[in-house]
């Protein structure tokens, strides 16, 4: 008897231009395009094994060893259904292909990063789920085509189908067929950029991205200005900066966009606070570090960015990492600089939320 099984993995990505708002909540179509950096190819990954077998009576999924319910019509069910649909197309074209689309699947997913890093795992998780089913079903699909399905699991997941610098183009078609991820540049184009993660708190966030962004769409006037007038200009400018390896512009735009994302969260009714005092203190440190460099005739050396939580991600050219870690450890003496077994640089326990 043949065994139909495939294992693949997908990395975490951190946005420089933030996705925040949906124009279609079922298809997960965003109100603006976004752009991210996929973190190192070997670290911070979700690894997923999918297996199809005639003896399975229903689709099941385990996340870090714990079974998750696959709710009818939910995001997991949608992704699995869409992947089976693509498999059916392969089977319809070639009648010799085993009818895997009719078998139930069992899916096992694990994250190789410490849960304490407080990083959202839905992006790497859904990207790994979709890519493992694509491998199981031997689909002739490109990463951009797969991103259309990963997007329906979690918006930011569509960007994790590529390494390096990735744009999620919002698209305009009502069926979402042009709302997909594209590669702006591979990691090898600019390998000098590193991400330093400062774990401020590993508590589960108070307001989830999904519900928070919906409330922002419904109540924030500032969001309307952001999506019409700000993001389109920034998307073009940051792509240009990446292609030119212009860290100064890349850093400026990344910090401005993080700030505006947190401003629209604050402009939401009732307001949403993702950063805390420690997050803001790290912003002050990076700002001061950059100010000293610029005053001495240099350029910006580091860029902070924050997602829907208090933890900082600092993008910086490799030469500055040691410097920045030692500054953080100096100002937050309880912080422990670590280089974990996966080679992830970070500062843990920077402060409590
Ligand atoms: C702040 O992709 O988690 O990290 O589509 O509802 O699953 P859903 O939301 P999600 O939102 C991510 C928001 C963000 C910004 C970003 O990654 O672009």
- Structural domain tally: 2
Mean pLDDT across residues? 92
Sequence of secondary-structure elements: EEEEEEEEHEHHEEEHHHHEEHEE
Biggest sheet: strands side by side, in what order?
A: 1-6-9-7-8
What is the count of DSSP helices, taking H or I runs of 4+ residues? 8
Low-pLDDT runs of 5+ residues are 340-344
Principal-axis shape: globular
Name the hetero compounds present.
ligand DP6
Task: Tell me the span between the first and last alpha carbons.
Answer: 54 Å
CATH class descriptor name of the largest domain: Alpha Beta
Number of DSSP strand runs: 16
Radius of gyration: 21 Å
Helix content: 25-40%
**What's the CATH topology label of the largest domain?**
Ribosomal Protein S5, domain 2
* Sheet with the most strands, sense and barrel status: 5 strands, mixed
Helix- and strand-based class? alpha+beta
Strand content: 15-25%
Reconstruct the topology from this structure.
Blueprint: E1 4-11, E2 13-17, E3 22-24, E4 29-30, E5 34-38, E6 45-53, E7 60-63, E8 66-68, H1 75-93, E9 104-111, H2 122-136, H3 143-150, E10 165-169, E11 180-185, E12 193-198, H4 209-219, H5 221-243, H6 247-266, H7 277-295, E13 303-306, E14 312-317, H8 321-331, E15 336-339, E16 345-348
Parallel strand pairs: 7-9, 12-16
Antiparallel strand pairs: 1-6, 2-5, 3-4, 5-10, 6-9, 7-8, 10-11, 12-14, 13-14, 15-16
Helix pairs in contact: 1-2, 2-3, 5-6
The structure holds ligand DP6.
């Amino acid at each position: 008897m043949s065994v139909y099984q495939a294992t693949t993995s997908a990395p975490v990505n951190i946005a420089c231009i933030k996705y925040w708002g949906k124009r279609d909540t079922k298809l997960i179509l965003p109100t603006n395009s976004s752009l991210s950096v996929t973190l190192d190819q070997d670290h911070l990954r979700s690894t997923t094994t999918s297996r199809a077998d005639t003896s399975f009576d229903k689709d099941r999924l385990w996340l870090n060893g714990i079974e998750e319910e696959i709710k009818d019509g939910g995001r997991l069910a949608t992704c699995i259904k869409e992947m089976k649909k693509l498999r059916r197309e392969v089977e319809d074209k070639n009648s010799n292909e085993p009818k895997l689309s009719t078998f139930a699947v069992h899916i096992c997913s694990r994250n190789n990063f410490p849960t304490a890093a407080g990083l959202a795992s839905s992006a790497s998780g859904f990207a790994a789920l979709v890519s493992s089913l694509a491998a199981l079903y031997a689909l002739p699909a490109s990463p951009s085509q797969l991103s259309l399905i990963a997007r329906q699991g979690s918006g930011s997941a569509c960007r994790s189908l590529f390494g390096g610098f990735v744009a999620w183009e919002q698209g305009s078609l009502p069926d979402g067929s042009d709302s997909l991820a594209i590669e702006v540049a591979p990691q090898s184009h600019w390998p000098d950029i590193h991400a330093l993660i400062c774990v401020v708190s590993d508590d589960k966030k108070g307001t989830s991205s999904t519900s928070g962004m919906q409330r922002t769409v419904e109540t924030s006037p500032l969001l309307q200005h952001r999506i019409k007038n700000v993001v389109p200009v920034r998307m073009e400018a940051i792509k240009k900066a990446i292609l030119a390896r212009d860290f100064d512009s890349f850093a400026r735009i990344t910090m401005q966009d993080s700030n505006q994302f947190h401003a629209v969260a604050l402009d939401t009714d009732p307001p949403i606070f993702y950063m805390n005092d420690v997050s803001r203190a790290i912003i002050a440190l990076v700002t001061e570090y950059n100010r000293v460099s610029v005053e001495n005739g240099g350029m910006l050396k580091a860029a902070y960015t924050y997602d829907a939580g208090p933890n900082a991600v600092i993008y910086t050219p490799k030469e500055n990492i040691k410097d920045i870690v030692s500054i953080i450890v100096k100002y937050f003496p309880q912080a422990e600089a670590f280089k974990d077994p996966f080679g992830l640089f970070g500062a843990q326990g920077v402060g409590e939320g």
